[in-house]
Amino acid sequence: MAVTEIWLVRHGESTANVAAERAATAGADVIEVDHRDADVPLSPLGERQSRALGSELADRGVGDVPVALWVSPYRRAQQTIAIALQAGGLEEPPRRVDERLRDRELGVLDRLTLTGVRNRHPDEEQRRQWLGKYYHRPAGGESWVDVMARLRSLFVDVDRLDGPVRLVIAAHDAVVMLAVAVCLDLDEPALMDFAAEHTVANASLTRLSRNDVGQPWSLDEFSAVQHLAEDDEAEVTEHSGRKDDVHAR
Fold first, then answer.
1. End-to-end distance of the chain based on CA atoms, in angstroms?
2. Cβ(18)–Cβ(208) below 8 Å
3. pLDDT of the chain along its 249 residues, tens only?
4. How far is it, in rounded angstroms, from Cα 203 to Cα 84?
5. Which residue stretches of the chain are H helix?
6. Where are the alpha helices (DSSP H) in 74-160?
7. Which of 130, 108, 99 is nearest to 30 (CA)?
8. Angle subtended by helix axes 173-184 and 144-160, to nearest 10
9. What is the reported pTM?
10. Which of 6, 101, 177, 231, CA to CA, is 20 to 30 A from 143?
11. Contact 221, 206 (CB under 8 A)
12. Which residues on adjacent β-strands are paired with residue 14?
């Protein structure tokens, strides 16, 4: 058997999401966070969102076929899937922590709001405006193309899996967006048009499917959040995660 379905989960709201929203509202340059990016935990709302996600995964029968689980090494993604599996009463599938699923690295722009980038690194902002989000690589960081390159290598490994039919990936907004771009073979104009109209919400579910190895992928569902809207303890949030959101061109 081969993997014919990929379920992409974005982590629930994190404490850095909250801090970024607070900094942007205040017009601050710097997002005040207590952890490096890899160690940022979920917020209390993010934990509730993760529990709602777990109920949704159980209701959808995520484990009705052989499942593999690949997870970002970052704490917020690992917390999300752990809470979801427990809340849904789901047995954890074989887990692989893969560094290629980490969030996009922003280099010198890390922890800066859009205002902070303009004030502290105007040259980088000019380069971003000139090159566009697709190709702009901040000093010490990654462009969207860089993230797509590591995801392309990841999907080679997906084709080598023998046994699982469904692959669940728990990661980040950029990873979800760019995994869709890789699977659908979107070029720069098509991806930027798609990103301008779509955001990846916290604790959302995105699904791709294909008939067999070597066949094209189809996008069945993108950033589904009905499970959050219907849960009294959760709510829908569309934080970009950091200041460099998917609408920026």
1. 40
2. no
3. 799 999 999 999 999 999 999 999 999 999 999 999 999 999 999 999 999 999 999 999 999 999 999 999 999 999 999 999 999 999 999 999 999 999 999 999 999 999 999 999 999 999 999 999 999 999 999 999 999 999 999 999 999 999 999 999 999 999 999 999 999 999 999 999 999 999 999 999 999 999 999 999 999 999 999 999 999 999 999 765 444 443 332
4. 9
5. 15-26, 44-59, 75-87, 114-120, 122-131, 144-160, 173-184, 188-197, 226-229
6. 75-87, 114-120, 122-131, 144-160
7. 108
8. 70
9. 0.95
10. 6
11. yes
12. 42
Q: H/E element holding 97?
A: strand 95-97
Q: Which residues contact 210 (CB under 8 A, 6 or more apart)?
A: 4, 216, 217, 218
Per the listing, tokens 């955001």 go with 199
Distance CA 186, CA 113 (A): 28
- For the chain, the residue count is 249
Cα–Cα distance for residue pair 178/221, rounded to 1 Å: 15
Structure tokens at 245: 């959101």
The answer to whether 166 and 7 have CB atoms below 8 angstroms apart is yes
